[in-house]
Amino acid sequence: MLLFDKKALAAFKQNKIALVGLVILVAIIGGALFADIIAPYDVREQDIKNRYQPPSMEHFLGTDEFGRDVFSRILIGSRVSLMVGIVSILIAMVFGVLLGAYAGFKGGWIDQVSTKIIDALMTFPSLILGILVVSALGPGEKNAVIAIAIAFIPRFARVARGPAIVLKENEFIMASRAGGATDLRVIVQHVLPNLVGEVVVMGSLWVSTAIIIEASLSFLGLGVQPPTPSWGMMIKAGVDEIQMAPWLAVFPGLAISLAVLAFNLLGDGLRDLLDPKLLK
Fold first, then answer.
1. Rounded to two decimals, what is the model's pTM?
2. Which CATH number goes with the domain that contains 242?
3. Fewest Cβ atoms nearer than 10 Å: which of 6, 24, 77, 187?
4. How many other C-beta atoms lie within 10 A of the C-beta of residue 199?
């Protein structure tokens, strides 16, 4: 598996862009994990007398319409955005890769039917499909995870299907099948390990898209519900007061941009490692 090869790791260490993305991502995840310790204020503590306070030494990123500390709410809200984005992509990765690999390996009517379903779902943009699913299931954090996962399952299935079709014609696959190995065993032992590199790269890139979709769902009132803070919901509240208190929307927006940038930089670095020329 390429991503765990010594040459690949050495090349990754020399990729400054990927390292920058990794450092930013570690900082964001660290802030989310230790938010309770880092956050200077209780995210639900209201101080009406000090509402709409601009950034200051007391409130690093200002206060919102209820006098709550924006910096503390961004830290706690990062947990929701990261959790929804990462978990939904992991779920989509597991089901999508298994579906695509099995369909491509089996071929025949199974592949044809699966391809038709995948193509039909792919006609919907991820955000629109997510909105449709969460509208049917109802708002909430868990339903947002399910909705985003469903939106990305066909994309992972398509990524896995093509290589599975190619791999099943290889001699080592045919030898394994001739030796009496079941299709499931061949897929797990031989097909899936050869898909790990590309799937991990696409997953790291698509996490950033999942974070944006979660923020969009929360902005529309279909994602995380109050009083739990989330970046998308904070932007929604800040848009109404954009002229009087622009920091309410700007800083959560910057947090989303930073997280998206980190995942994209890391994903680009991992994708570069798939080029054999870089490992020579």
1. 0.87
2. 1.10.3720.10
3. 6
4. 20
Q: 179-191: per-residue pLDDT in tens?
A: 777 777 777 777 8
Are the C-beta atoms of residues 148 and 154 closer than 8 Å to each other?
Answer: no
| Within-domain flag for 4 | no
In order of 73, 136, 143, the CA distances from 80 in angstroms are: 11, 21, 13
Question: Which residue carries 């954090």 as its tokens?
Answer: 141
d(CA 145, CA 54): 34
Tell me which long-range contacts 3-7 makes (C-beta under 8 A, separation of at least 24).
3/196, 3/197, 3/200, 3/270, 3/273, 5/279, 7/279
d(CA 54, CA 60): 9
- Mean pLDDT to the nearest integer, 2-6: 53
Q: Specify the pLDDT at position 1.
A: 43
User: Which residues lie below 8 Å from residue 204, measured CB to CB, with a gap of 6+?
Assistant: 263, 266, 267, 270
| Range(s) of the domain holding residue 231 | 13-36+69-274
